[in-house]
């Protein structure tokens, strides 16, 4: 790890830069003006040399899409390869902050520089805002040296980009790394097809939690909508309704069509281990691949990066069970 010498600050919108309107808080451009004014009021503060870019229009992160992820990825790569920056700080809304951190963890594999995402629960101009603490905390971490890869800084903590989740909607310490067990097999070397230079395209993905009373017809309707990959949030260690033959057949039919079915645990401390229960084995035999201890955000982001790169269902399944950046191995 080396200290940051040339930093790019990317602003995508979010609460950190929002301003009040008659309809409520809305994204606002020109955050660099407020940042420079704040730095001018604290001349003793040391920050790395920085450049600034806004992704326009700034958005409420509740409106985040896969195309925004791809735009963020392109902007980060340009900051490194065209502007010569050795680190990137991305200012982002909190609603989908963990989703973007996870997606970028896989989209930027091999880039070789630290990328830190942060935001705020209250706008920078609001009383008691956490905006400046988070922003300057991230800057301080980068000034001291952060390992290459994607990270999330919030509430005084630097978190793994593919392990973090949002746990609260009111507390200023809203993010944490989820304490899930991980047993994935680490890759010895990153294959070229997963490198950040690989072109990605949007993918039709879905996430569905299992729940008592889920009907085969409901699952069939979802999978019949053109879904290329499904994250199925299972009970406990990867169990589900093993006595519903129609539902299991829906899963088998989808897998035969080439849909990738990724199982993760609903439990905050959970991980998938199909062999523990017969009910888990039934899901595995129906075509599901176990996601070990991946979070929902990591599972969705990884599926997007793999399928979006044009990998086949079989190739995607191969890499899903292998650890690429710490998402499923400690």
Q: What would you say this structure looks like, in words?
A:
By secondary structure, the protein is an alpha/beta fold. It has 2 domains: 6-177, L-asparaginase, N-terminal domain (Rossmann fold, 3-Layer(aba) Sandwich); 186-323, Rossmann fold. The chain is 31% helix and 21% strand. It contains 9 helices and 14 strands. The strands form 4 sheets. It has a 6-stranded mixed β-sheet, sandwiched between helices. α3 (97-107) runs parallel beside α8 and α8 (296-308) packs antiparallel against α9 (313-320).
Q: Would you spell out the secondary-structure blueprint of this structure?
A:
Elements: E1 6-13, H1 31-41, E2 49-59, H2 66-81, E3 87-91, H3 97-107, E4 114-118, H4 131-144, E5 149-154, E6 157-160, E7 164-166, E8 175-177, E9 185-186, E10 205-209, H5 216-223, E11 229-234, H6 245-256, E12 260-265, H7 278-285, E13 289-290, H8 296-308, H9 313-320, E14 322-323
Parallel strand pairs: 1-2, 1-3, 3-4, 4-5, 9-14, 10-11, 11-12, 12-13
Antiparallel strand pairs: 5-6, 7-8
Helix pairs in contact: 2-3, 3-8, 5-6, 8-9
Quick synopsis:
Residues 6-181 form the L-asparaginase N-terminal domain. This protein is an alpha/beta fold. It is 31% helix and 21% strand.
List the uncertain runs.
none
The CATH superfamily of the largest domain is identified as L-asparaginase, N-terminal domain
Number of helices: 9
CATH topology of the largest domain: Rossmann fold
Percentage of residues assigned to helices: 25-40%
How would a crystallographer describe the biggest sheet? 6 strands, mixed
Span of the ends, CA to CA: 20 Å
Characterize the overall form. globular
CATH architecture of the largest domain: 3-Layer(aba) Sandwich
What is the CATH class name of the largest domain? Alpha Beta
Structural class: alpha/beta
Widest beta sheet: strand line-up: 2-1-3-4-5-6
Q: Spell out the helices and strands N to C.
A: EHEHEHEHEEEEEEHEHEHEHHE
Binding site for substrate: 61, 94-95
Protein name: asparaginase
Keywords: Hydrolase
Domain Asparaginase/glutaminase C-terminal: 206-317
